[in-house]
Amino acid sequence: GAIAADVRRGALIVLEGLDRSGKSSQCSRLTSFLHTQGLSVEAWRFPDRSTAMGKMISSYLSSQMDLDDASIHLLFSANRWEKRALMEAKLRAGTTLVVDRYSYSGVAFSAAKGLDLDWCKAPEAGLPAPDLVLYLDISAEAAAERGGYGGERYEKVEFQKKVEQNFKSLQDSTWQNIDATQSIDTLESMIREAALKVVNDCHSGRELSH
Ligand code: T5A
Ligand code: NA
């Protein structure tokens, strides 16, 4: 039954942060590490640019297409909803998902354009809730110095500062703030420890919430 299936469920681990905070680097390192521990684990990311909606989002982000602020917000959310059934199935089957951005990015970026924060949150309600959110904390200025912004729509310091304020107002009990100015290796070991703990909690029966 549902309870038995949940007892060994996987963990939903989300990495969040400003553009260039180091999320993708840490997601791939964490996924490899959990794999070496014999765990069933997959790396996911949002936006998922591979779907039809994801292709629209990608062309919006690269400024090939313009969309109304509210419309693109709902499209980012819909791109998570279209993956919901698969996410839940994987988690309940025992696979841990390491996810590069989730609803917090959805709300923080759209609200930085001036949309109402609560309005932005509404379409996220009902998606699987993360068991752990690792927030890679770095200032907009320090992030901009890394590797150079690639020229996507949101990669501007003034905008990222607003996004940072919004992220900080979204923190809840599942968050761990991590100083993202530390070395890639230091961050990797801190993240490993936090992730293993939550994977164990989920394997021991912590329920999936929404
Ligand atoms: N968005 C997203 C919304 O508006 N709504 C939504 O609902 C969602 C989900 C998508 C954009 O869409 C917005 C947010 C974004 O603006 P994306 O595809 O996630 O963006 O962005 P990417 O361009 O793929 O990734 P980022 O720019 O966010 O970079 P990362 O993943 O944070 O950083 P990473 O690991 O690629 O590293 C960046 C550079 O820094 C170096 C790396 O080597 C690399 O050069 N670096 C470090 N340098 C020093 N010290 C460290 N600890 C370092 N870690 C990494
Ligand atoms: Na990334």
Which structural class fits the helix and strand makeup? alpha/beta
- Uncertain residue segments: none
Percent strand: 5-15%
The best one-word shape is globular
End-to-end distance = 19 Å
Strand element count: 5
**Element-level helix/strand string:** HEHEHHHEHHEHHEH
Strand order of the largest sheet: 2-3-1-4-5
Q: Count of DSSP helices?
A: 10
**What's the average pLDDT?**
95
Radius of gyration: 17 Å
Residue share in helix: 40-55%
- Outline the biggest β-sheet: 5 strands, parallel
Bound molecules: P1-(5'-adenosyl)P5-(5'-thymidyl)pentaphosphate, sodium ion
Task: Give an overview in words.
The chain has 210 residues and is an alpha/beta fold. The protein is 50% helix and 13% strand. It is built from 10 helices and 5 strands, in the order H-E-H-E-H-H-H-E-H-H-E-H-H-E-H. It has a 5-stranded parallel sheet with strand order 2-3-1-4-5, with helices on both faces. The structure holds P1-(5'-adenosyl)P5-(5'-thymidyl)pentaphosphate and sodium ion. Sodium ion is lined by residues 23-24, 100.
Give a quick rundown of the structure:
The chain is an alpha/beta fold. The chain has helices spanning 2-7, 23-36, 52-61, 69-81, 84-92, 103-111, 117-121, 140-144, 157-169, 184-203; strands at 12-17, 41-45, 96-100, 132-137, 175-179.
Kindly list the characteristics that best describe this protein.
globular; alpha/beta; 5-stranded parallel β-sheet; binds P1-(5'-adenosyl)P5-(5'-thymidyl)pentaphosphate; 210 residues; binds sodium ion
Secondary structure layout:
Layout: H1 2-7, E1 12-17, H2 23-36, E2 41-45, H3 52-61, H4 69-81, H5 84-92, E3 96-100, H6 103-111, H7 117-121, E4 132-137, H8 140-144, H9 157-169, E5 175-179, H10 184-203
Helix pairs in contact: 2-10, 3-4, 4-6, 6-9
This protein binds P1-(5'-adenosyl)P5-(5'-thymidyl)pentaphosphate and sodium ion.
Sodium ion is lined by residues 23-24, 100.
